[in-house]
């Protein structure tokens, strides 16, 4: 009897060991299956960057002009509203008139049928000291620049040395590639519409100068308008002042 019970007990333990081994083998098989099924990371979809309109890229590409190379402007770094474009524009001014809105920092060349070519501009302190009407009596390519007496007196270290006698035209000249000179009653008002390579300043208020445009834009404007073009500079309320209220700019003029 004792021998029979011992035999049964051994068979029971053996069966239990077989079941345990089978369970462990099944678990290892399951774990093995998990380890080979590597889950790929979730992919996040990003919208592709919109391509630049080739026409705009060409407008603001590098320009070789009279021996000077004007660097390109990246349209993607510009506020879209400051890119040269034709817009709807209601005004009583006849086509061909330049309208400068220094407070909204736009320059308009009035066209027919309620439209205008609009340019973004940077506006210096002097650009806000002038309102009214004038005429473009002089147009210059790569103009010479001379600091005013007020500029020299205020910042003698900056303007009282070599710059006292002015700077010849060129890519580093503050007036840029073109300058349009505004006259009133035959007298120079010292108001200028001129170029700049400082693309960051377009659409901004800047410390000095009058109305600055990207060199590519001022070349375009200069090509479109002849001498004796009428210019209207709007006041803070968006309307032109009367001709009698035209103020001459005093100092700090490029």
What name does CATH use for the topology of the largest domain?
Answer: L,D-transpeptidase catalytic domain-like
The CATH superfamily of the largest domain bears the name: L,D-transpeptidase catalytic domain-like
> How many structural units, i.e. domains?
2
Largest sheet: 10 strands, mixed
Helicity range = 10-25%
By secondary-structure content and strand pairing, the structural class works out as: alpha+beta
- Strand residue percentage: 15-25%
Radius of gyration: 37 Å
Q: Please give the order of strands in the largest beta sheet.
A: 3-6-5-4-12-8-9-10-11-7
Keywords:
254 residues; alpha+beta; 2 domains; ten-stranded mixed beta sheet; disordered C terminus
Put the structure in a nutshell.
The chain is α+β, with helices and mostly antiparallel strands and 254 residues long.
Q: What topology does this entry show?
A:
Blueprint: H1 2-36, H2 54-59, E1 63-65, E2 68-70, E3 85-88, E4 98-101, E5 106-110, E6 115-120, E7 122-123, E8 132-141, H3 149-154, H4 156-159, E9 178-184, E10 187-196, E11 211-214, H5 215-224, E12 230-233
3D structure, described in words:
A hairpin with a 2-residue loop joins strand 1 (63-65) and strand 2 (68-70). This protein has helices at 2-36, 54-59, 149-154, 156-159, 215-224; strands spanning 63-65, 68-70, 85-88, 98-101, 106-110, 115-120, 122-123, 132-141, 178-184, 187-196, 211-214, 230-233. It contains five helices and twelve strands. The protein folds into two domains: 1-31; 54-245, L,D-transpeptidase catalytic domain-like. It is of the alpha+beta class and 254 residues long. It is globular, with a radius of gyration of 37 Å. The strands form two sheets. A ten-stranded mixed sheet has the order 3-6-5-4-12-8-9-10-11-7. A two-stranded antiparallel ribbon has the order 1-2.
